[in-house]
# Entry
Amino acid sequence: MGSQSAVDYPDYEARTDLARGPVYRLLRSIYRFLKHRVLFGTLLYPYGMLRHQALLRSADRSQHHTYTAFYRSPIQLQALTGPLTAFCTDRSPPGRRLEILQFACSNGAEAYTMAAALMQAHPALDFHIEASDLHQDLVHKAIAARYSRDEVLHHEHITEEFLAGTFDRDGDGFVVKPGLRARVSFSQASLIDPALDQRFRAADIVVAQNVLFHLDRAAAQAAFENLVRLLRPRAALLIEGMDLDLKVMLTRRHQLVPLRYRCREIHEQSRSHMPLAWWRYYYGAEPYSILRRDRFRRYGTVFTRALSVQD
Ligand SMILES: C[S@@+](CC[C@H](N)C(=O)[O-])C[C@H]1O[C@@H](n2cnc3c(N)ncnc32)[C@H](O)[C@@H]1O
# Structure
């Protein structure tokens, strides 16, 4: 790997800081704290909320945002491989495969990342990910499973361990390992298709991340109802990236329970590339507020449902 891969960037910044001495580092920390936590995180918070609500009422959404990344949310992945897998498998009969449905999968990075994390954490677990996206060209790309250096390395959380477990090298590029490719299938599907529950069978884990905020409110609501119809009675939903008020309303309506596991860290990790003036973007999300009574529901990205058979 070259000397300036995505893996190197944080180290480079830390080394530069170290070279500048302790006084510089202290002043820098104070400056960052005042700017991020005090000014943008507290003083401008009410203004940001009002501006964002106004923007949500008028913004044109686009279903052509396809940004994705390998290993984008490592803490959420720990929730998946830890408490969530335990929740979904602890009552299933021996030998039953864990079924995962993933929508809006873009070029496949998220599906292969989840498959790699599950295989590493649970080598004996039988699971399958059925992934889909609105755009057929992305589906072809995901099936090919061949990525450039930039497509693989551009996100700062990528680790050498993840790379080694997920890819074989192919010249200057990366190809997903055959064992992982066998665990994932891809097809074209729209989340707002009224017949979605006839195309797919209900699953243990349903994933639709960073897509609902690209739909207008009515379409996002229809998509959410589709997702809930695809949950088995005991199942989990991963839903990072949707309007927070809508999430509170719809998860309550469907009696979905937010997983508290590292909720704040997962939310903050999902905002790590958000400009400080987050309210200027319809897909922006406010900083985590410990003052909200519904904070786990509002900021949570992982929800569970455990209905009795009669439900
Ligand atoms: C920002 S990307 C998110 C990709 C991935 N889920 C992630 O979090 O990294 C949004 C994806 O949603 C897809 N998309 C947009 N509208 C959709 C719809 N109605 N049904 C299914 N996928 C859709 C886009 O094609 C795009 O790949």
Summary: The CA atoms of residues 81 and 121 lie 6 Å apart. The two ends are 53 Å apart (CA to CA). The chain has a mean pLDDT of 91. The first strand starts at residue 98 and ends at 103.
